[in-house]
Specification:
- Helices cover 42% and strands 16% of the residues.
- The protein is built from 18 helices and 15 strands.
- A seven-stranded mixed sheet has the order 1-4-5-15-10-11-14, with helices on both faces. Strands 8-7-6-9 form a four-stranded parallel sheet, with helices on both faces.
- The protein binds pyridoxal-5'-phosphate.
Length: 451
């Protein structure tokens, strides 16, 4: 009988992260200062990040040591299991082999603590007392709250107002781990008050919440900012996922032909795929697919150009596929996939055709999620379900073409705190929203022109 779960012992947690920047054919363009539009130096970033993370952000070193104290906390849930989806394969009657890495085993229920833990560690070591950050549906905020509690750091979270009101459970989790949570836009910061002046009923957005958190960090000397996706050091930390997976595939005597991940900012996809991408750059034949919602089609419909990371234009300009930083996404359920752009690393690799992209509507996504739950058991996060929809299409294509491919995806998190989304789907209340091209054009027309 073939194995269902391929497990590693604690001793096999990777001791180093893998830095894709050592191997990319083209490095991403440098971040630019929001005022001068010149490349930012370490000094520009030191107001909100500790030097160790700034160094990782620009490092070209292939392997970077994981600190002992971070490994100790990783061992609370790592290594995570690699599953063979036998029952899903049977359901789809596919000759393909389907595997998934299950990141829902972390205390916060997603891959995000892989980076919140080292971020808290480096900030603590730099003498920082408090972290200010933003969260959409609450996954990143809860990962940061967890990390703060592990290292004795205060955590202040600006949570997108619509989620704060509609999704209380992750807020309660954050408060249980000791964090303070403000609905964003809030009256706590200047940018928050400005957003509220413009629209007192603003539902908030990730871009607005980032503006508030960055302002909070920049105006308090004992406080730094932390970002849960997009930046190079975040994707670096997430490579523990792919590095473990490579060992697990060796045990299984297999290797993926197609790697699929949902893509919000790109951290779970990057973390899963970069260690394999190393082999692809060195000639291995393999596809890597980023899956996004049709309601926030950053890679499939965005433009590759410099844009701000936040709505107020406080952050450096990054070279990304973007829908425009004032993009206000519709209230779709995959909260973690609503960012207006993607990680510069993912964008450059997409530009260089080392990564592909696909977009799915909500109904297809929840169809896939429910089929997965009824075959494999785990109820996936709505974000993750985007990857699952693409996996199922790929597996059905294998059946039609009689191909026995190995398909591998990241089960980035469980959906047990997202059951309202499932309730809406099961009662037929979900619709498919395609973000209109005119609105993307409108938003992009307002971007700064560089060069
Ligand atoms: C945040 C989140 C995502 C999206 O973020 P990425 O940076 O693209 O990984 C995906 N899945 C889950 C479960 C999340 O919490």
């Amino acid at each position: 009988m073939q194995e269902t779960r391929i497990l590693l012992s604690e001793k096999e947690i990777p001791k180093q992260w893998y830095n894709i920047m050592a191997d990319m054919p083209n490095l991403p363009q440098p971040p630019l200062h929001p005022g001068t539009k010149q490349p930012v130096g370490p000094a520009d970033l030191s107001a909100i990040f500790p030097m160790a993370l700034i160094e990782q952000e620009v490092s070209a070193q292939r392997w970077i040591d994981i600190p002992e104290d971070v490994l100790k906390i990783y061992s609370l849930w790592r290594p995570s299991p690699l599953h063979r989806a036998h029952r899903l394969e049977e359901l789809l009657k596919t000759p393909a082999k389907i595997y998934y890495k299950y990141e829902g085993v972390s205390p916060a229920g997603s891959h995000k603590p892989n980076t919140s833990i080292p971020q808290a560690y480096y900030n603590k070591k730099a003498g920082i007392k408090r972290i200010a950050t933003e969260t959409g549906a609450g996954q990143w905020g809860s990962a940061m709250a967890l990390a703060g509690s592990m290292f004795g750091l205060e955590v202040t979270v600006y949570m997108v107002r619509v989620s704060y009101n509609q999704k209380p459970y992750r807020r309660i989790a954050m408060e249980t781990w000791g964090a303070t949570v403000h609905p964003s836009p809030s009256t706590v910061t200047n940018s928050g008050r400005k957003f509220l002046e413009a629209d007192p009923d603003s539902p908030g957005s990730l871009g607005m919440a980032i503006s508030e958190a960055v302002e909070d960090a920049a105006t308090h000397s004992d406080t730094n900012y932390a970002l849960g996706s997009v930046l190079n050091h975040v994707l670096l930390h997430q490579t523990v996922i792919g590095l473990e997976s490579k060992k697990q595939f060796e045990i299984a005597g297999d290797y993926p032909d197609v790697i699929i991940g949902c893509c919000g900012g790109g951290s779970n996809l990057g973390g899963l795929s970069f260690p394999f991408l190393h082999d692809k750059i060195n000639g291995k034949d393999m596809r890597i697919v980023a899956v996004e919602p049709t309601s926030c089609p950053t890679l499939t419909k965005g433009e590759f150009r410099y844009d701000f990371g936040d709505t107020a234009g406080l952050t450096p300009l990054l070279m990304m596929y973007t829908l425009g930083h004032d993009f206000i996404p519709p209230g779709i359920h995959a909260g973690g996939l609503r960012y207006h752009a993607d990680a510069p690393l993912i964008c450059q690799l997409y530009k260089d055709k080392l990564i592909e992209a696909a977009a799915y509507g909500q109904t297809a996504v929840f169809d896939a999620a429910v089929k997965f739950a009824r075959s494999e058991g785990i109820i996936p996060a709505p974000e993750t379900a985007h990857a699952i929809a693409a996996v199922m299409d790929e597996a059905v294509k294998c059946r039609e073409e009689g191909k026995k491919k190995t398909i591998f995806f990241n089960l980035s998190g469980h959906g047990y705190l997202d059951l309202t989304a499932y309730a809406d789907y099961l009662s037929g209340k979900l619709d498919d929203y395609v973000y209109p091209d005119e609105k993307i054009k409108e938003s992009l027309a307002k971007l700064p022109v560089i060069g």
